[in-house]
Amino acid sequence: MEYQVKENDIRLDNFLASCMDISRSQVTKMIKSNEVLVNGKLVKAGFMLKAGDKVLVNHVEVNGLEAEKLDLDIVYEDDDVIVVNKANGMVVHPGAGNYSGTLVNGLLYHTKLSDVNGAERPGIVHRIDAYTTGLLMVAKNNKAHEILAKELASKKTYRKYIALVWEVIPNDSGEIDAPIGRSHHDRKKMAVLADGKEAITHFKVLKRYDKATLIELRLETGRTHQIRVHMDYIGHPVVNDPVYGNRKLFDDSGQCLHAKELGFVHPRTGEYMQFDSELPECFMNILKKFE
Prior knowledge:
Blueprint lengths: L1 E3 L5 E2 H9 L3 H9 L3 E3 L9 E2 L4 E4 L2 E3 L2 E3 L6 E4 L3 E6 L16 H8 L22 E7 L2 H12 L4 E9 L6 E5 L2 E3 L7 E3 L7 E9 L3 E8 L6 H8 L23 E9 L6 E5 L4 H7 L4
Parallel strand pairs: 10-17
Antiparallel strand pairs: 1-5, 2-4, 3-5, 6-7, 8-9, 9-10, 11-16, 11-17, 12-15, 13-14, 15-16, 17-18
Helix pairs in contact: 1-2
């Protein structure tokens, strides 16, 4: 969007806040993200505009959601699907308290997304927690979204996670089949409940440490916080989890849980595709403390 300045000596941030009917802090964020050009050049928020100046804003809203230029790690993309390696701390889609800076905000700036889930969750076929890192697939059109969602619901999507959990797991492998629902005691948490929804997690031990175990996990179902709840349920909560397990935290980088592999049948070609990703720095930094 381009604006023509009609008066002299007005600050850039004040000018845009007035034109776009948003706060100065929002304008400052756009300017710092290099989304604003004055006469084709990057300038600071306090730049004094003159009559005749042209201000170009590369920042738009789609269905009421801000499209933001964010640094995304896109592993694969075509006309139907995007596979993203989500960064630590990034919320997947806007919601209460998180209306900007989410993966969806960044993707909307990058491309068009499906609207099967409505305006608030465009393109999102499945989610991972803000402080869980790793791979997830996003649909760019409704047909692709519907096919991928059906595949996910029928348990055909392949998802493998890596986690560091507290204490030594004696079994080399195992299956946790325990229903999960919203906790009756804390509505912000999930819990294993008799009347919960089916939840099945498979795990295999990769390495044992003195007080922790590195494991890989495969999901059959995709309940909210499933791995974190299941591992806490069997007495091996995820290391550095700020919500489950009641254990001492190493830092505020979030749980040592990474969505490492993702496999699915492409919605248009019918070809099976599988992707892999490396453990992030935040995970490795804590893992090294147990080496």
